[in-house]
Write a structure and sequence with these properties.
Number of helices: 8
Structural class: alpha/beta
Radius of gyration: 15 Å
Largest sheet: 7 strands, mixed
Strand content: 15-25%
Shape: globular
Distance between the termini: 15 Å
Number of strands: 11
Order of helices and strands: EHEEEHEEHHHEHEHEEEH
C-alpha cells in the first residue's frame, strides 16, 4: 500500500519570527505515526524581521525563510515554488508568528491583511484539486481570506475571530487538542499555541488534525 504524502509548509524557524518549532515537529511526528510521509517546503524570501527569542527584541540582521526552515527540516526542504499540490494528498500549515509575518501580513495589518501570492496559489490549488488543507495555531486565519466561508478555529481569541469573520469565514471556539473539520472545503484546523497550551496538548491537536486530514485525503 502506497503511503499518503503530505506537503508541510513552514514560515521560518522560531515562534516569534518563523514557524513554531513544537507545532512543526509534532506535525511531522503525527504524519509518521499515522503511516504517512511528508515533504517540507518554505518560500525562498527574506523574513519580515529577526527576533531575539530570549529578550523578544528585534535584531539588526536579515534571515531567509527557506534557509531558517531548513533547520527544522534537517536540510530536506524545497522552495515553495517547487510545490505542485497535485503531487500530494494534502497540505499542512503549522503555526508561529512567521505565518502572520512571512506568509501573510496579518500581524501587521489585522483583518485587512493579504497573503503572499505563492501561498495564496497553493491554497487555491489545493481546494480546486480536492486536496485537504490542515492549519494549526494562527494559520487558519489565511484560509477564509482565500476561500471565503470556511469554518475554522484558532481557539478563542476575540480579535482574531473578528478578523476571520470579517473575511467571510466562520469560527468555532475550541479548547486544547480540539479540531474543527469543514467537510465542504476539506479544511481541518486546531488552535495549538493560540491558547496557553502545553507541549502534550500540542501533540494531541496535531495528531487529531493529521488523522482527520488522512481520512479526507
Amino acid at each position: 500500500m502506497t503511503k499518503k504524502k503530505l506537503a508541510v509548509i513552514l514560515s521560518g524557524c522560531g515562534v516569534f519570527d518563523g514557524a513554531e518549532i513544537h507545532e512543526s515537529v509534532l506535525t511531522m511526528l503525527a504524519i509518521a505515526n499515522n503511516g504517512a510521509e511528508y515533504q517540507i517546503f518554505a518560500p525562498d524570501k527574506n523574513q519580515h524581521h529577526v527576533i531575539n527569542h530570549i529578550t523578544g527584541e528585534e535584531m539588526k540582521e536579515t534571515r531567509n525563510v527557506l534557509i531558517e526552515a531548513a533547520r527544522i527540516a534537517r536540510g530536506n526542504i524545497k522552495p515553495l515554488t517547487d510545490l505542485d499540490v497535485r503531487d500530494f494528498d494534502a497540505i499542512l500549515f503549522p503555526g508561529g508568528f512567521g505565518v502572520a509575518k512571512n506568509l501573510c501580513d496579518f500581524a501587521l495589518k489585522g483583518a485587512d491583511f493579504s497573503v503572499i501570492p505563492l501561498v495564496e496559489n497553493v491554497i487555491k490549488s489545493a481546494y480546486q484539486n480536492g486536496k485537504p488543507i490542515g492549519a494549526l495555531c494562527i494559520s487558519p486565519v489565511m484560509i477564509p481570506k482565500i476561500l471565503g466561508e470556511v469554518e475554522v478555529t484558532i481557539g478563542s481569541d476575540n480579535g482574531t475571530i473578528a478578523a476571520i469573520e470579517k473575511n467571510g469565514g466562520k469560527h468555532k471556539i475550541t479548547t486544547h487538542g480540539e479540531i474543527v473539520i469543514d467537510n465542504k472545503y476539506k479544511v481541518v484546523t486546531t488552535p495549538c499555541y493560540m491558547l496557553d497550551a502545553t507541549i502534550d496538548q500540542i501533540a494531541t491537536g496535531a495528531d487529531k488534525l493529521v488523522k482527520a486530514i488522512l481520512k479526507l485525503a
